[in-house]
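INFO  loader      accepted 1 record
INFO  loader      residues=421
INFO  predictor   begin
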Amino acid sequence: MNWLDIDKEHVWHPYNSLPTKTKILPVKRTDKTSIFLSTGEELIDAMSSWWSAIHGYNHPKLNEALKKQVELMPHIMFGGLAHENAAILSKMLVDLTGLNSVFLCDSGSVSVEVSLKTAIQYQEAKGFKKYKFLASQYAYHGDTLAAMSVCDPNNSMHSIYGSYLPKHIFTKAPNIGFDENCDDAIYELEKNFEKYHKELAGFIIEPIVQGAGGMRIYNPKFLKKARELCTKYDVLLIADEIATGFGHTGKMFACQWADIKPDIMTVGKGLTGGYMTMAAMITSKNVSKTISDSKLGILMHGPTFMGNPLACSVAIESIKLLQQTNWEEKVLKIETIFAEELDEARDIPLVKSIRNIGAIGVIELKDDSYAQYIQDYCVSKGVWIRPFGKLIYSIVAYTIKEEDLRKIIRTMIKAIKSIKS
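INFO  predictor   done
INFO  writer      dumping tokens
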């Protein structure tokens, strides 16, 4: 039996049916920023494996880190045991974020789960019964239950679970645009803090770019106000940097655009350069000390594969690569090319808007019925994209060649122009 037939019949792909109804492409190998199919085609990866492969594929230094570690210790439980790689990685994250305490976990969704539990434990430790969270309209924070509960209940893929999930509070999202006025959103944010602060354990937000909720780039002033209000009302500010962290917006972390420090930060995706599943929750010393000094005295979470040595080893090397290369210059060049090339899409009748920041480029259509056609067109021209509803977008590896990046954007635009109205 052909392995693709097995896949179609037995493998449940993300956001898909079983048997699979949509086209699944057979990948044989990857290299640099290319995907090679078993059918012979080569595709430029415009998605960097869901925004994680920031150095491209098969980077020799990342490969070597894994090879060395697998011979030494591929895994060890983290309960009651420690290993050097976890300590080194944690110190790197502390130095990068300015926060103090690191909880290593398996995936971005899990890091959000842990952050919400941590916020509740923090408030409990201070003697407060505060179990609700404030989140933003259009928010997306992951697919596990607690993470889903702080995703927008009306505009997200998780609305079907609405009656099952905890009920939290959602505030108006700032208008799209890095320099756009966000006074209305700030006004509503202030009102929500005034009204609900006695119930709120935390406010969770994707800094600067709301990802799967619409690739919405917004004004840093909103983050500054959120920091002020969280401090005023002793509500923990949770920055979900899973998608934005490690350079995607042009800063190491998107919070730096607003010059703020959250109480809790979640990171993932680019943490291991796309090699291994790993994420982290990082908190201030105040948060970890308050919980540790409380009656319970411990953080109640412990994944089996927490602090996996293989993942730690490649994460260390990935961060070193960022620190040792001119990644800021590369991302700035990517941003400039996106701005230049996307401008051609501005006047296409089907296009609602275009936007970009850092390694992220977005074309938003007026209609969401063309996603599969556009994906098929791009694949036929040697470009791998995965549109999301009305959003035709690309988030690329920082190592991408200029000609490949320009081909990605031009192919996306040609695909849209080819649609018969």
